[in-house]
Design a protein that fits this description.
single chain, alpha/beta, UDP-N-acetylmuramoyl-L-alanine:D-glutamate ligase, globular
Length: about 300
Amino acid sequence: MNRAVYTVTLNPSIDVTIWTDGLDADAVNHVVREEREAGGKGINVSRVLHSFGVDNLCIALAGEENRHEFARFLQHDELRFDILEVDGAVRENLTLRYADKTVKINRRGQSLSQILLGALMAYLGVRVHPGDVVVFAGSLPENLAVQDYIELILCAKGAGALVALDTDCLSLEDYGRIKPWLIKPNIHELQHIVGKPLTKDTAANEAGVLLAVGVEQVLLTLGADGMVLLSEKETVVADAPKVQVKSTVGAGDSALAGFIVGFVKGHPTAECVRLASACGTACAQQDGTGVATKDTANACLPSITVK
């Protein structure tokens, strides 16, 4: 089956990463390196999919004040994209790297009017077809209510899409209403969903409550402890190899993309999880805000075991 893949990023960013030799609050600190690129969880997923040759369309909101700069970054990455223009500007998020430390400062982002929300719903209703994969990932525009976000997701699901979610704004009740094909929480996000502290040893069992409310698959990422895929049919555990972690930014996005790559290529679930783990591991070994590529992930695959 030929499946179209879409990623939806409602609150993207222009990510500015600055490297310095140190940080002294009482002195002038000089920049030794600076990078700018389009940011957002859905955009990261699109980048990884593109690297693996999986055709996909990146759908993003962008403020009219700097949408052209934002679009240039997407063009540079050779992504196919559709931009819905909104008022204001795409937020600029700052990452400061010095010594072995990272400081992140994220701005709140742009707004989405009810009129444009309706236009986006209509767009998805026409664009998406049964069996397509639609990824909703990242934070929300500051004025978008969670219930409106759910209606947007249900618009894609109502068109027959397989919905994948990677966001921290939904409750257990919300997931029960949506009943998505896949969600990808980390342990901290799962704690928020189930409302109790978790450890790597208890998290997988607690994730079962998501299956009970109708989530089809839970891809639970555990950082250095690997990941677990849970469904009513099976449980697959992937161990993460010991590597030098330079940055965890984008690792979860890379893992989600890796799973989708395996799925659209028709791989068994265990191989999808193995590829997800390889992508997450590859990303963690990179400096800055980069994501996994086909080459870096394939280099990690031999060291990934699943059971």
